[in-house]
Amino acid sequence: MGRPRKHDQEAILDAVARVIARDGTLSLGAVAAEAGVAKATVLYDHASKRDLLRALVQRTIAADNAFNAECASGVAPGPDAPLRGRIEAARRVPVSEEGNPAVLGLIMALMQEADLRADFRDSQAQILSGLMAEAANPAATRLAWLALEGLKYQQHMALVSRSEAERLQILDDIETLARTGQVHPAAVAPGQSAQETSDE
After folding, report:
1. CA within 20 to 30 Å of 91's CA: 43, 81, 99, 119, which one?
2. Distance between CA atoms of residues 167 and 147, nearest Å
């Protein structure tokens, strides 16, 4: 049997993400069935389930960093450019009522293997360090980044249902917070979106 091609390994990692997002655990048989390959192919480049999880974590981090870097490349230079790039990246990510399988898979992988969280912690620390190095107002930048990550978490986990207009308004508010250190007060009643208020 020949060595699996690179795109086959990518498909296997896609299957790993879908399986653990769906089942909450990783079964080699389920991954093989999902990917349409033999169990031996699943483990050809990864010696164990833990290696598969590590590969998934590292691939997810690398893909996220690359996407954010691409979005940041189109942002005008200046204070908080890296954060503004990440906000632009969040604007481009489509919302799904089912959540994001890649992120759900990442979260489940991190829950199953505590030591894999070190990779993710290192990535988060590097991101925050880069954002703070370019911050005009470090306190506002830190709060804006936390707000952005919280919004993304809710979106990826499909925890809150929002209209696209409301989601984009929140991202605008986060960018305003980073730029000015404050958010413009809006008379938004509980249960009412900012878009509904602006339409009145």
Report:
1. 119
2. 12
Contact 194, 188 (CB under 8 A): yes
Say how far apart CA 38 and CA 115 lie, in whole Å.
28
Residue 100: exposure state from Cβ atoms within 10 A (0-12, 13-18, ≥19): buried
72, HSE (Cβ side, Cα atoms, 13 Å): 19
pLDDT along the chain (200 residues), means of 10: 60 87 82 89 85 85 88 88 93 74 67 76 91 93 94 84 90 92 62 48
Q: Residue 155, CB half-sphere, CA atoms under 13 Å: how many? A: 21
Which residue type is seen at 176?
T
Q: Where are the domains of the chain?
A: 54-183
Residue 149: half-sphere exposure toward Cβ, Cα within 13 Å: 11
Please report the DSSP string for 3-19 in residue order: PPPHHHHHHHHHHHHHH
**Which of 169, 170, 133 shows the shortest CA–CA distance to 148?**
170
The CB-based long-range contact list for 164-171 (8 Å cut-off, 24+ gap) reads 164/95, 165/193, 165/195, 166/193, 166/194, 166/195, 167/95, 168/91, 169/193, 169/194, 169/195, 170/194, 171/87, 171/90, 171/91
pTM score above 0.85: no
Residues near 26 by beta carbon (within 8 Å), at least 6 away in sequence: 16, 19, 20, 49, 52, 53, 109, 112
